């Protein structure tokens, strides 16, 4: 398995100048290659190959007075810049042809010196080396002081030097682990219901409070942004203010990342199988919950769980986002109508009393186990196609808000257009992600029976006949 290890580096002022020169040369070569291919396309010429691009923009360009300064940096840096361009084009072509799954990729764009992130990459061909004294030797740059937080598990195959928006420098090593890191097997399996009031609720009843790192730093960020707005554009004081704002944001991001790493490692070590819900974070980003959703960082947390489970020999699974984990009774399988957001506990006609989030986590665990079950056990209803008017997501779905445990939530309306709703019904967006299923396919009821939800009587629908569920 290939892993990436990041370390903070502290270049001297002269080394910072050399790094800036390398960043600029790599950026120029990348932009020249992009411009050359765009011009060839506009002229109706054939696609310029990777080798031809390297010969014209590096080998021949160094011999011209206009690009003679490209020889002041390592040629590997320039070759890797073109490799990034070629990768961007391949991803773009694979996306538009349908070979690459997921969201459509945009064509490569020009790089700018004003980009918040600048990076160069060295491979083994450049003969970079980690010295015995702990410094990192890079060609035509020098020996960089590295703060080693831990040792590398193996010899690195490449290293990237990165400068972020806060002016910090990092060395990112790519290593391949050969040793077996499989953890001893355990008996417990867990389903995780992610939310906002509680960041994660486990199927065993454990609730982890949401740290809300961005909300806690909002006052300081507001003051820094106000100071920035008063600075004259183009002045040195404005650059200093921009740097302060960037440092405040990086502090929030670093704190969140550290907390998520510790939590994900704990979950992976204590459970043999982990199941989560496949949420549409992009759709949630179009609602009034967007700030809280991005502050929570669900996508990064689930990505950590996935790669750590693969690394340590655990099982990881994602449950379909349209699975009604909140409204389904984990005891009998009865599916209730859409619940109000303030309903945190409800009673099923079968006699089971449920906590909203714990019940959802329990259903996620059962659905994940069914997807990976060789016997094909069915624990959830079959798929039903959604009405045409309910199969889309609209960015303006919110019309009014209501607070749940200190967090603003949505009450939308559903109808022929997304974000509209018949009178008397409520939007399923909750503090735990019901908004992610704002475009979920409706499941038409076959019969109705009363169910008591927090002392109120509402109509419910029985479980639909089990359908054919493909193994995810």
Describe, in plain words, how this protein is organized in 3D.
This protein has ten helices and 19 strands. The strands form five sheets. It has a seven-stranded antiparallel sheet with strand order 2-6-7-1-5-4-3. It has a five-stranded mixed sheet with strand order 10-9-8-11-12. It has a three-stranded antiparallel sheet with strand order 13-19-18, with no helix packed on it. The two termini are 22 Å apart. The chain is elongated and about 85 Å long. The longest helix has 35 residues, at 236-270. It is α+β, with helices and mostly antiparallel strands and 472 residues long. The protein has helices spanning 13-42, 50-59, 75-97, 213-216, 218-229, 236-270, 281-284, 290-296, 298-311, 356-371, and strands at 2-10, 118-123, 129-130, 136-138, 142-147, 158-163, 169-176, 189-194, 198-202, 207-209, 273-277, 315-319, 335-336, 345-347, 353-355, 398-404, 407-412, 449-453, 456-461.
Biggest sheet architecture? 7 strands, antiparallel
Number of helices: 10
Fraction of helical residues: 25-40%
The outline comes out as elongated
Over all CA atoms, what is the radius of gyration?
Answer: 27 Å
Strand content: 15-25%
Content-based structural category: alpha+beta
**Uncertain regions: pLDDT < 50 for 5+ in a row?**
374-472
> Going across the major beta sheet, what is the strand order?
2-6-7-1-5-4-3
Q: What is the terminal separation in angstroms?
A: 22 Å
N-to-C series of helices and strands: EHHHEEEEEEEEEHHHEHHHEEEEHEEEE
What is the β-strand count? 19
Give average pLDDT, whole number.
82
